[in-house]
Amino acid sequence: MTTFFQHDTAEAPLAPPRCLAAFWRHHPLADQAGETLVAATLAFQRTTGVQLVKLTPAGNYQVAGRGGHAEWRGDAMGRRTFLRRAITRPSDWLNLSASLTPLERDMVAAAQCLRQALPAEVPLLATVFPPLTQALMLAGPEQLRAHVQSAPDAVSSGLATLQTGTGRLLAAYQAAGVDGIYLAAQHLSEAVLPRGLYRHIGCAGDLATMAACDGFSGNILHIHGPNIHFDGLPSNGRWLIHYELGAANPPASAYRAISHLPAVIGLPFTVWDTPGRLHPAIHKHLAGFQQTGALLTGPCVIPLAIPDAHIATWIRMINHGA
Fold first, then answer.
1. Residue 69: how many CA atoms within 13 Å on its side-chain side?
2. Is 34 exposed, middle or buried, given 0-12, 13-18 or 19+ CB atoms closer than 10 A?
3. Mean pLDDT for all residues in the chain
4. Distance from C-alpha of 270 to C-alpha of 278, rounded to nearest angstrom
């Protein structure tokens, strides 16, 4: 991603030299097949003018071929709801496969098509969920916690299988020409897993997954939800941290005291939609993160109700000073 980010030092090799804006959204129904997702992603890029593209498959795409069932039921963000979990008994952890599923292979093919269709100077990120987030999708939080207590070896075996499968997916994306990984760690929050449990079953796997991303030009770690587990942040490498500015999360200054990695600043959509608040908020948070530039975006994905025309305006305001 050398055309998008400035490489400064070995300690912080990725640093946007100025403020740039990028957004992404789910494409429900279109995200069930690579061909239709490619078309929807390219249409979004062309109508908004976004200069960084993220392949955003359905949130369950890494577990869809491993059992269970999820559907989009009108969620405003385009997320799918799990109607049936794949793992209900401890023995189910032992039956997981590390082979790429048909949908995973289809998304890798979609990434290759996107890379060929996009201008060379536009970086392409592929969304990947780390093994522990996949485990939460497969079992649900309560069942996962129960199985950690009753059958820890079975859970460990399942997580190891998911780790192997994730490594294979990362290698496939790299072979497809993807520039970087958007690692969506939805479990890095006290609201999902207690800190002690995360340290016990998740932290080492997260760091191993990040290490497997070293071959990409640049990556973004999305830390999701309130009361973040900062144990899971990478300590080095080509990473930016997508930091949601919510009331439950520590302020920018507290993050900077913990990590030297540049932040992708996730401004609330109400701020984006209020021009009088936008630039003061940007200046405030740049100062808090001690950055002169940043990739600016929203808290997570764009709500489906926000028109592409609004997003195009936001991008022009930042990227082109319009």
1. 3
2. buried
3. 91
4. 9
Measure the CA dihedral 253/258/260/263, to 10°: -60
Beta strands (DSSP E) in the chain are 20-21, 53-55, 69-71, 81-84, 124-128, 180-185, 219-223, 239-244, 263-266, 295-297
- Altogether, the residues listed in the chain come to a count of 322
Predicted TM-score of the model (pTM): 0.94
Ranking 104-108, 144-148, 192-196 by mean pLDDT, the lowest is 192-196
Beta strands in 272-321 (DSSP E): 295-297
Helices (H), 151-265: 152-175, 195-201, 203-211, 252-258
Residue 32 near residue 40, CB atoms below 8 Å: no
Q: Is 128 a residue whose pLDDT tops 70?
A: yes
pLDDT value for 16: 65
95 residue type, one letter: N
Residue 19: φ, ψ to 5°: -85, 130
What gap in Å lies between CA 295 and CA 23, rounded to an integer? Answer: 10
Rounded distance between C-alpha atoms, residue 161 and residue 168, angstroms: 11
Q: What is the DSSP letter of 291?
A: -
The identity of residue 184, as a single letter, is A
What span, in angstroms and rounded, lies between the C-alpha atoms of 96 and 314? 43
